[in-house]
């Protein structure tokens, strides 16, 4: 993804929002048995895997910043916020729903070449659907 902090911050804000909404959805389920049923359903499992893929985008961004030795307080703050909301979701799924089948997927995303730039398929998909209708370009 583009290394301009404003673009990365927007992406991280959207990642945070998607995971935050998931927290709200699961928090609204008052019965652990219903939560387990939802999580163990095909749709629930697919949803958790998709959320995990979204979280992995933040990990890729963090790794990219580290590899380029880019330090930005706003980006670090946004990454921390994403980690907090993700960890809240994980602990809710594990403890609040008593699910021993928590799924965390590392994402084997194949690269996509578009207009001479290489993107992780999951990253490009998330960007186009949640951040902006135009893929960022590396500068």
UniProtKB/TrEMBL annotation:
Domain Synergin gamma C-terminal, residue spans: 7-97, 107-137
Domain of life according to the entry: Eukaryota
GO cellular component annotations of the record: clathrin coat of trans-Golgi network vesicle
Pfam families: SYNRG_C
Alphabetized InterPro entries for the sequence: SYNRG, SYNRG_C
Coiled coil location: none
Protein name in UniProt: Synergin gamma C-terminal domain-containing protein
């Amino acid at each position: 993804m583009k290394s301009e902090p404003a673009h990365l911050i927007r992406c991280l804000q959207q990642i945070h929002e998607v995971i935050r909404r998931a927290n709200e959805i699961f928090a609204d389920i008052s019965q652990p048995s219903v939560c387990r049923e939802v999580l163990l359903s095909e749709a629930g499992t697919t949803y958790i895997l998709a959320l995990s893929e979204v979280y992995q985008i933040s990990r890729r961004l963090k790794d990219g910043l580290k590899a380029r030795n880019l330090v930005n307080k706003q980006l670090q703050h946004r990454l921390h916020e994403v980690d907090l909301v993700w960890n809240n979701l994980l602990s809710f799924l594990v403890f609040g729903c008593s699910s021993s089948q928590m799924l965390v997927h590392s994402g084997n995303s194949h690269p996509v070449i578009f207009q001479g730039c290489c993107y992780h398929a999951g990253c490009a998909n998330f960007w186009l659907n949640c951040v902006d209708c135009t893929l960022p370009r590396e500068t």
